[in-house]
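User: Round two. Same drill as before: sequence, then structure, for each protein.

Assistant: Same drill it is. First protein:
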Amino acid sequence: MLTFRQILKKVQKPAYYTGGELGSVVKEKTPDLLRYAFCFPDTYDIGMSYLGGKILYGLINEMEDVWCERAFAPKDDMEQLMRENNLPLYGLESHDPLSAFHLIGFTLQTELSFTNILNMLDLAGIPLLAKERTDLFPLIHAGGPCAYNPEPLADFIDFFVIGEGEEVQPEFIRAVQEFRREGGTDKVELLRRLARIEGIYVPRFYDVTYKEDGTLASFTPNDDAAKPVITKRIVRDIDSIYYPKEVVVPFAEAVHDRVMMEVFRGCIRGCRFCQAGTIYRPVREKSPKVIDQCCRALVDSTGYDEISLTSLSTSDYTGLMEAADTLLTWCDPKKVSLSLPSLRVDNFSVELMDRVQHVRKGGLTFAPEAGTQRMRDIINKQVTREELQRTCRIAFEGGWLNIKLYFMIGLPFETVEDVAGIAELAQMVVDTYYSVENRPKGKSPKVTISVATFIPKPFTPFQWTAQDKAEQIDAKIALLKSCIRSRKINFNYHDRKTSYFEAVLARGDRRLGPAILRAFQLGAKFDGWETHFNLDTWMEAFAQTGVDPDFFATRAKSFDELLPWDFIDCGVSKAHLIREAEKASRAETTPNCRQQCAGCGADRLTGGDCHAKR
């Protein structure tokens, strides 16, 4: 058997597995210490970029008698050596096996990570099925955007956290601590206590029945502690909630290796395909003063020289100019740059970009999402051709050469004209460059079209819509390719097989559990990576477990069908989603939330407060 040091010498990225980074927390192992493992079901470089993980790591470690450690999915070379040398998956801070922890929490950022959760539990020597984990600890829980449809993972997870974690995490951790102090040993009784906390869902406390056609017949609690409806947890005032003054600075380069500062939650736009725009409502903005304080502390403690102001749509933040001007008073002297992701076509300006220092004028990215105005009206993406042209002109005059445009195909009510319109819109951008008199001389523009297949997600107006079948997507891709005639336009498209698989898991129910388990047993993992994903493996798993994936992905649902996630209240009413679906069928738009409140209902979770209405 190799020692840990010998193993590290044989892997490509040893820094992923050592721990000990600046900002990491080590605590004394006392009998009263509650051990918590925050698990990101992907590799270190991706997981260390996750802002939510940085927040929860700091928050939990500030709790008395609680120690939060990190764990990530090892890459193939490390996993092979771990299995060969009987090295269980461990917490980075202590190097203790995960089986020694009381609470193990996974974040669900994408359905494509589900098999990585099973692989990490397997590497830790922890039984995969919740019913087989009869000991009190460890308790396995999960949260994040994919927890809004927790049912596909119901067989594996002891409890789910629905909504925002800053308040509920300490609440359920304290409940577990209290249970331990009382000398409790009954796992079911502990889960009952947790189920009484708002935002906690315990799958074992619910029974599901099905109709002959395979649709859901009922979803009912089987325990007095279980609520018929799980209401998401939400933080009302994000100025007052915890934000770390220190974060772990990774030894190895992370995907996003910089200070990340959240400026607001929610979105005013109401794009009908966007799950995040629904589940994070209502809009709550952070004040420029608090943003400045947090950024100063993080730059001082980490030494980072870049700050990224993040949100679902940063340029919609009403305090953006004030915050940027305040930050630049000290960022410029310290040579710290600002970056503004999530810029929109309809509010891009020279004034805005002047606030951003040291931006490499190589490329800008925008997301028209659809090629024609009719299609953009259907999805409520309120971006016009004229606005895109104006924005590109501003960019080209400012010295930018490369423009990347994101689109989707397979959208509801899409026609061949809508698909061809993607190529036409890209050509318009190329033509705009050559119409700019003071464009960079002797250089050519580069316009990249990046196309993904539409995925109908829960808690969107399109959650009832069928995904296009494979042959339909292939025909549309072929059509789009034939419409591109300029060498200045590059065309990239996301593998439709991955999008199909994602749709199955996104809209599935707990009958998918055996298929997920079987796919893992057949070798599925890192399904979000092109180098690993194999749809044939999944189709074999579906066939062996009697699951028809088309039933979940390519079948349209009626408004009165019981959906697997209907027991979750995300704040936005189902009636609002139906209204938006009906307006989409008529290609009618809904104004953004600052122009006119659409009555989505999310503000009832904050006592009627929504910053978009201020």
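Second protein:
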Amino acid sequence: MKKKSKPVFNGAEILSSLVYLCALSAGLMYVLCRDYLLICTIIQTAAAFGVYMLFYALRRKRAFSLMAFVALFLVVYAVCTFIGNPYRSPSFYEFIFNASEFFDPALAGMTILLGSLIIGFPTCYFTAYLPRPSFLLLPLFVPLILAARLVGRIPLGLLVFMAVGYMLAVLGIARPEFPDNNTYVDDKRARIERVAVFGTAGVIAAALLTVIPRDDYTPMIRYLEELTQRSSAYGRRVLSEFSESSTPNRGNNTPSDSALFVVYTNFPRNVSRQSFDVYRGEKGWTFDSDFSNGYDNWQRHRSRLNINKLITDLKKGAENGKLEQYSEALNRLDDIPEIYSIATAQMTIRIVDGSATSVVMHPSETIGANITALSGNSPITYRNANDEIFTERPMPRNASYLVNYFYNEPNPQFIEMLEDVDFNTLLDDAVEEGVIESAVRDEYISESNTAYTYYEAELDGSITAEIQAVADEITAGLSNDYEKALAVEKWFGDAGFTYDLSFVPERAEADYFMFDSRRGICTDFATASTLLLRAAGIPARYTEGFVLREDAMDSYGRYVVTEEHAHAYSTAFIEGYGWLEIDGTKYAPVSSLSDRITFVLTIVIIAAVVLTAAVIIFRRQLSELFFAAAYRLRGKNGKIRSVYMKTRRLACRIAETDPRSTTAEEVRDIISRTLSMDDEAREITDAANELFYGSGAPNADVKKLYRSYKAICRTKRSRKK
């Protein structure tokens, strides 16, 4: 028996491999170094192509090149681990598994060096060493898996680029050559190697999905596992500076999932960014310059406005025989809950979107901000009447700062007590009897005067008669502003409003939202609640910021805030507490249509992936199925032609020859020599010659021809087992 020869491979197309490496590098750098995507992609592509060319030069020495790759990989990995050790801040692993929350040139360089080996050698191996088109998909899984775990999704344009790079690499792949007269080679070793590599890659991919730290805020994960989770995005894309006006809802809101800033705190609160004063209908909200001027040294004033401490001091004064005229009411107050008895809470905010902003984001009741500066001279912070905090000059790019704030909640009993007691008089008496300091009284009175001055200035005609009527109806029979504010907040749930990110309003006006659509996003709810509060006689302003939801917390206990967490709400002044956040969206159900659409899209995507995989895996079986169906619809001549063409393609695949230059006699010779099917091959080729070169209609039995073709296919498959 003649000894089977092993195939050798000619060189892969270098240019197509370069495009593939560039596409793969772009996907990887989008996940790991997004702020510097272009420059990092260029460097990664150059490094990966260098690795590719190194091993391409060694393609005739497969065993040596494999050992060289393993040794080189271990050396590079050891260097990366040593330089980026876990005691470094941030560590190498933290840099890789945290979705571009920060950028470090040294860590990025190590990532590129390691990544160039991971994608460069497999690309060379599966294009020049052991060409396997389907295996070129395996390196593409690296950025896709990281994206699914970290940033949620890769942009469609980048996915298309990656797909194009893959297709070009497949087209330029090395072709096998059989030196011994087109003898059909049963390369069993290659099949075993292919199955082993594919199985190993599958195990590695499964292990990565299990081991890689999982960030619950990732949109893709939430869509698949928490389809009812509500988003509070309002579509703002500016973090750097204060805006001239708010962003009205125009519909079809698609917030980005890029990280804007990271928050460390044990006492989460909404983070305020900016407030607006004057409502202009479809143009949204803008600010009033009378309330935008900031003042420094505000920390000393704000630290005196601790309502829990004030109530505690008043109660102690009554227990000690002071404030006799208020003692009965004060003694009825419950003690302050332990969680609200802390002196101050802390929140560290680290900007990660690359901006050098002057805006200090902060929770309500902030009493101090410590800005970290590399020069050692922290910029002075200012605060205005709208509770906006900003610095005298822009902070450094990706600055970090610490804010201190009171972690208080309204005390309904104390607010109810103030229905029968004048708050200012109570404060005066407390100062006179030595219960509190005069500076504390002055701060509370000043805060109240500022709030009601703000209220009187903002009645600018934006409250229509219809809005006024609704406010009167909501607050009818309620005795204090706190109860009225909560009633306004709850009204959105009782009145059938729906939170819907995808809804496109006909008009971006409060009246349309409140009386026609009753469907919108947080900007609509915040606008309506602010106007209703003002109509009810309560000082209120429109505020935009971010909400620290549980889905924003990563595996390190930090809140990673993106545009998805942007939020708009109202802040209302309540005598006896201060500025209270009112959020109507908490009572409004999420649009079930959006959930159904998300669910349907998810099913469609999964089905498309499964269908595509099935087509790739069973492409030959499907091809034969379609051929069998189409064969029965053809005429006699068409059946003879199609059977011959299929047989010729099969023979040319065996012999690795070009079908366009292969004659019928050569087809018969290949089938006879490699598969020992001389009779079947002769029937098919004789019928084809009679059809192509005969003078009359062929006298062949088309059913027998089809059976002969099927027999040839079965024999070929059995020879490969």
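DSSP finds 25 helices and 17 strands in the chain.

User: Perfect.
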